[in-house]
Design a protein that fits this description.
It is built from twelve helices and no strands. It starts with a helix and ends with a helix. The protein is an all-alpha fold. The protein has a single domain, classed as Na+/H+ antiporter like fold (Up-down Bundle), CATH 1.20.1530.
């Protein structure tokens, strides 16, 4: 029990701090949006770049982890989409329900938790998750959504925005540095490290602040309950099942 509290205590403390300072008026909604953009546009890309460029690239790019995480995510996406269609939702609504189930909150919640529970693996795990989410799952979701709306032109624009995402650009830049003789100056490396370290705390404060003013009844409803169950139960179990399947196949060899 003490171990669980040791991991979750700092997480909920920072979420509570964000909620408190926002409720007291220190932060406004516009401030939280700016902090959220800072995390997505600067802190997380710096974190991804550092994870890919520091240490052995082979230790970061783990094919088994990528395969298991991708397999579990795609299985959850398929189940979420199928459940939406069976419930009478159209293609777009079913796609976004599936997205809520299959897209883990790796940057804002997953990384801070892992940073406390397994700090040695936190950076590389985030990098691997972002590879799957930004290069496969999110583009696939965009294809499904735009296809259901008949928007071929919008699809190319959406995919172009995904490829221009700072996280994707940081990933590509990190791979270029890791795979070539290019070296990053020490001063720039330290600056990137400082920005990267701010990701966990700022993201949790943003989460707490955005909860201010959200009515409790917003958490109700069958569709929201289904998305929550998919994200917190189905997706982790699907990824775990893929890990077990890969492990058993590897041991048979």
């Amino acid at each position: 029990m003490g171990g669980v509290i040791g991991v979750t205590g700092p997480i909920f403390a920072l979420i509570g701090l964000g909620h408190l300072v926002t409720r007291l008026g220190s932060f406004r909604p516009a401030d939280l949006r700016a902090l959220g953009r800072y995390v997505v546009a600067l802190a997380l890309p710096a974190l991804i770049f550092r994870a890919v460029t520091v240490g052995d690239l082979a230790a970061v790019i783990d094919p088994a982890y990528l395969a298991a995480y991708l397999g579990g995510s795609l299985a959850t996406l398929a189940v979420g989409y199928g459940l939406g269609r069976r419930a009478g939702l159209d293609g777009a609504a079913s796609t976004f329900q599936a997205m809520g189930m299959a897209c883990a909150n790796s940057g804002f919640m997953g990384y801070p938790i892992l940073l406390i529970a397994l700090p040695a693996a936190a950076d590389s795990a985030l990098a691997l998750n972002m590879i799957v989410e930004n290069l496969v799952v999110i583009p696939l979701i965009l294809v499904l959504a735009e296809t259901s709306r008949g928007g071929g032109t919008r699809l190319f624009g959406s995919l172009r925005r995904v490829l221009g995402n700072p996280i994707v650009l940081a990933l590509v830049a990190g791979l270029v540095v890791a795979l070539t003789p290019v070296t990053v100056p020490a001063a720039l490396t330290q600056a990137i490290d400082l920005v990267a370290r701010s990701s966990a705390a700022v993201s949790l404060i943003v989460i707490g602040g955005t909860l201010v003013g959200v009515p409790l009844r917003a958490a109700g409803g069958r569709r929201i309950a289904a998305v929550v169950a998919g994200k917190l139960v189905l997706h982790p179990l699907s990824v775990a099942a893929c890990f077990v399947a890969l492990a058993s196949r590897w041991t048979r060899r």
